[in-house]
């Protein structure tokens, strides 16, 4: 505890790091404040009570889980009909599209290799594509809240303007697009002037915003009539901590491939001989794809739910609208395993790694440089990706496994694994690593300055 307090003091004493953290916190406050501003045409007070009625409606339980999942990524802005209802997710969708297109479009492939200028152009393309995604998602969102959650025919008091009119749709679409672009701008500013990855931090903040309410609701359910009591709350908290620790292990687990670098030294007579150099490692992550397979799979999982409109009497298809059903989670787990291999294959170029090793005089012991090294790395990567993908899929469907058997409420169950927990763990680890880097650089600079100050003048 004493070392932790000392670390906090070191962070505060380092001016640059302190300013970055305060700047990040300021941007987060702006984002959270904006998420409580409702669309001008909607009565915010009425929307809150109506959505609560909808979520507790016995005939709408299948859609409630899906609504809770969507709302969790925006910190509740989705369910509050906020100007930030779309959140940062359109930017994430645009980034995924650009990344996938980079595999097939030569122009994008060239930009990926052009260094800083290429990245800037790709960022600009992603921003324009974000606007296009928003223009598609905003009308769908407005259509959903006006036809399902707060239909005008039953709840006219929830609207200041009739939702079928041009004066409702045009300003609302413009405001939703602007809100998503504002969230994107906040994320980029955090990345540039703050600490950590701004986009990921905004997603994590949105997820964490719903945690206190979900936990309080779970406590109320367990300690109320028919609940298991306070001892069950303690068991849930201990289990949740264990799941977090396992998620951390999955995020940092690596397979180290030993690399031996050789150097050339001139022997007598002008010849060359090989001498051993430094031994290093290639760290291949067990979960190299991170949370991206879950995000890809999550994006596709909304498609089966839309198919229920073709046949609303089909109970099998209806299960895909419920994030806790066995149909939903079985398909979800299969897609995660598939996307884990797919994303790992496109993000870890084993051929390029093998070529770089050969060019720099590096080799894997007992493996020939070149194609044999590439095949060896590909074989190792395939072997460690399979268990990583399986564990990732288990984490993703864990909320459905604990819902009902251990956890009694939907909101708190979503924090037991799934996209929410893995995003939080990944963002926290990345942010802590950046803070540690600043601290190490600070101590290193101070050590060099003290040595220089003790060096006598010649």
Automatic annotation (TrEMBL):
GO cellular component: plasma membrane
Gene3D superfamilies on file: SecY subunit domain
Record GO biological process: intracellular protein transmembrane transport; protein targeting; protein transport by the Sec complex
InterPro entries: SecY, SecY/SEC61-alpha, SecY_CS, SecY_dom_sf
Membrane-spanning intervals of the chain: 21-42, 88-108, 128-154, 166-186, 198-216, 228-254, 286-307, 327-350, 384-406, 412-432
Listed PROSITE patterns: SECY_1, SECY_2
Topological type in the membrane: Multi-pass membrane protein
NCBIfam families in the cross-refs: 3a0501s007
Assembly and binders: Component of the Sec protein translocase complex. Heterotrimer consisting of SecY, SecE and SecG subunits. The heterotrimers can form oligomers, although 1 heterotrimer is thought to be able to translocate proteins. Interacts with the ribosome. Interacts with SecDF, and other proteins may be involved. Interacts with SecA.
Described purpose of this protein according to its UniProt entry: The central subunit of the protein translocation channel SecYEG. Consists of two halves formed by TMs 1-5 and 6-10. These two domains form a lateral gate at the front which open onto the bilayer between TMs 2 and 7, and are clamped together by SecE at the back. The channel is closed by both a pore ring composed of hydrophobic SecY resides and a short helix (helix 2A) on the extracellular side of the membrane which forms a plug. The plug probably moves laterally to allow the channel to open. The ring and the pore may move independently.
Family per similarity comment: Belongs to the SecY/SEC61-alpha family.
Protein name, entry field: Protein translocase subunit SecY
Organism of derivation: Riemerella columbipharyngis
């Amino acid at each position: 505890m004493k070392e932790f307090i000392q670390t906090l003091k070191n962070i505060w004493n380092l001016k640059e790091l302190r300013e970055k953290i305060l700047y990040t916190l300021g941007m987060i406050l702006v984002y959270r404040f904006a998420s409580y501003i409702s669309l001008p045409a909607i009565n915010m007070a009425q929307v809150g009570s109506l959505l609560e009625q909808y979520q507790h409606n016995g005939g709408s339980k299948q859609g409630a889980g899906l609504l809770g999942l969507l709302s969790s990524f925006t910190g509740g802005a989705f369910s509050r009909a906020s100007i930030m209802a779309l959140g940062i997710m359109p930017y994430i969708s645009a980034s995924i599209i650009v990344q996938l297109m980079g595999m097939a479009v030569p122009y994008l492939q060239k930009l990926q290799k052009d260094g800083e200028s290429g990245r800037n152009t790709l960022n600009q393309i992603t921003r324009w594509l974000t606007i296009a995604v928003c223009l598609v998602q905003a009308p769908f969102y407005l259509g959903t809240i006006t036809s399902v959650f707060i239909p005008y025919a039953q709840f006219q008091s929830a609207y200041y303007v009739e939702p079928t009119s041009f004066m409702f749709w045009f300003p609302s679409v413009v405001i939703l697009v602007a809100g998503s672009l504002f969230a994107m701008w906040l994320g980029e500013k955090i990345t540039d002037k703050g600490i950590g990855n701004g986009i990921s931090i905004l997603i994590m903040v949105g997820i964490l915003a719903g945690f206190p309410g979900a936990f309080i609701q779970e406590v109320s359910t367990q300690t109320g009539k028919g609940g298991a009591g306070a001892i069950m709350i303690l068991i849930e908290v201990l289990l949740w901590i264990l799941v977090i620790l396992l998620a951390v292990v999955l995020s940092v687990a690596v397979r180290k491939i030993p690399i031996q670098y050789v150097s050339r030294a001139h022997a007598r007579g002008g010849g060359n001989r090989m001498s051993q150099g430094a031994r290093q490692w290639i760290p291949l992550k067990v979960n190299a794809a991170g949370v991206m397979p879950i995000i890809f799979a999550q994006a596709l999982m909304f498609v089966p739910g839309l198919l229920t409109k073709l046949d609303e009497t089909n109970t099998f298809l209806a299960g895909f609208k419920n994030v806790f059903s066995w149909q939903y989670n079985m398909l979800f787990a299969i897609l995660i395993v598939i996307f884990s291999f797919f994303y790992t294959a496109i993000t870890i170029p084993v051929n390029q790694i093998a070529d770089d090793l050969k060019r720099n005089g590096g080799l894997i012991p007992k493996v020939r440089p070149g194609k044999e090294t590439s095949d060896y790395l590909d074989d190792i990567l395939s072997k460690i990706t399979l268990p990583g993908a399986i564990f990732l899929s288990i984490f993703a469907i864990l909320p459905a496994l604990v819902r009902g058997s251990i956890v009694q409420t939907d909101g708190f169950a979503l924090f037991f694994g799934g996209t929410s927990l893995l995003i939080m763990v990944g963002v926290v680890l990345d942010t802590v690593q950046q803070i540690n880097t600043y601290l190490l650089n600070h101590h290193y600079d101070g050590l060099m300055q003290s040595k220089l100050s003790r060096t006598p003048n010649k």
